[in-house]
Amino acid sequence: MRRILLTPGPLTTSEATRRAMLTDWGSREPDFIALTEELRQRLLAVANGDESHVAVPLQGSGTFVVEAAIATLIGPKAKLLVLINGAYGERIAAIGRRYGRDVETLVWPEDAAVEPARVAEALAADPAITHVAMIHVETTTGLLNPLPEVAEVVRSAGRRLILDAMASFGALPIDLSTTPIACVLASSNKGLEGTPGLGFAIIDRALLEQAQDVSPSLSLDLHAQWRGFEANGQWRFTPPVQVVAALVEALRQLEAEGGPSARLARYQANFNVLVGGMSRLGYPLYLDPALQAPIIATFRPPLGRPFDFEALYAALAARGFIIYPGKLTREPSFRIGCIGAVKPEDFRRLIDAMSALNSASPATVA
Ligand SMILES: *Cc1c(COP(=O)(O)O)cnc(C)c1O
Q1: How distant, in Å, are the alpha carbons of 54, 225, 313, 365 from that of 320?
Q2: 9 lines ligand 1 (CB under 6 A)
Q3: Which of 18, 24, 36, 22 shows the shortest CA–CA distance to 231?
Q4: Whose CA is nearest to atom 5 of ligand 1?
Q5: Along the 366 residues of the chain, how does pLDDT read in single tens digits?
Q6: Does ligand 1 have an atom closer than 6 angstroms to the CB of 62?
Q7: Which residues of the chain are in CATH 3.40.640.10 domains?
Q8: Distance (Å, rounded) from C-alpha 36 to C-alpha 80?
Q9: Is CATH 3.40.640.10 correct for 16-257?
């Protein structure tokens, strides 16, 4: 049975992507060095950053590269303002504090977007702030923060923006030639539809050049990692060779699909089938639709009837659909992802499976 992961990652991958992992590459083989170079160029191209930025992949999950970016870019004299409206914003602030850095936060409720005007006020009030970190799509809820507006506020205040674009990269528009972002962070296993095992930073070259010996960590040091690639095309430490090969294959498929705009259109079509079907089955969407990105949808339990998430999860898993057990901190809810190598047809089958469960045992399942 084909397994469909409707989570925020790891995600469903295509067969061609999984098949790209069948070779045992040596890390210093010329062919693997060429694959790494293609990876770095394709990542830059997705964000249109060829002129200004460099791509620095790093072993590990997305959080590893977020931590490496904070360690490398926020030195002891810098001050980081983190814009928080969910768990991933909280995580960036926690990383900064763990490194003993000067961290300030601005916090919004989980169902409200970052407000550019409040960011502008905070920057005007505190000249010590050097960098601002924001989550593009806050995966806690699926909320889209206003990137162009916040980037402009940060630029006009003369500060640097660090963007966690983990959930959005490859689908939602990020154009470094028109939007001022110092550092974009993402990973292999979300909108790029690769397999899990590496994150990457797309960093303003001039900024990264100044970051030598800033990171207190040996392995989580993006300056040293970048210098390694520039010196001989090789990874500093053992590369996740199969993950690299799969991600290059997935990036070729992204291009063949028509690039991020075509991918976004597919995710939007997935989202529309999902949310339309869930609404007919009585599950309200948690967010105001105006704030929602078609990446992951948060639903409230159905009104006026008992709801058992564990039973729903298990019944869907038995039918090949893995939904996401995480929930919001404050309100009863559950999430279903719309991204990965999945199509509207898969969501029609999901909704059919849920309707069948509804009529089979309305009291226990949904
Ligand atoms: C997935 C994700 C991360 C990284 O999570 P990992 O589990 O470390 O891969 C960071 N930020 C956001 C917004 C994410 O969606």
Answers
A1: 39, 39, 10, 17
A2: yes
A3: 36
A4: 62
A5: 789 999 988 999 999 999 999 999 999 999 999 999 999 999 999 999 999 999 999 999 999 999 999 999 999 999 999 999 999 999 999 999 999 999 999 999 999 999 999 999 999 999 999 999 999 999 999 999 999 999 999 999 999 999 999 999 999 999 999 999 999 999 999 999 999 999 999 999 999 999 999 999 999 999 999 999 999 999 999 999 999 999 999 999 999 999 999 999 999 999 999 999 999 999 999 999 999 999 999 999 998 888 899 999 999 999 999 998 776 767 889 999 999 999 999 999 999 999 998 776 554 444
A6: yes
A7: 16-257
A8: 31
A9: yes
Q: Which CATH superfamily is domain 258-365 in?
A: Aspartate Aminotransferase, domain 1 (3.90.1150.10)
Pocket-testing residue among 88, 91, 141, 338, ligand 1, by greatest number of atoms within 8 A of Cβ = 88
The rounded Å distance from CA 188 to ligand 1 centre is: 11
Q: Which residues contact 177 (CB under 8 A, 6 or more apart)?
A: 48, 49, 51, 52
Contacts of 276 (CB under 8 A, 6+ apart): none
Taking the centre of ligand 1 as the mean of its atom positions, its distance from the CA of residue 341, in whole angstroms, is 18
pTM exceeding the 0.85 threshold for the entire prediction: yes
Say yes or no: CB of residue 164 within 6 Å of ligand 1.
Answer: yes
Ligand 1 proximity of 135 Cβ (cutoff 6 Å): yes
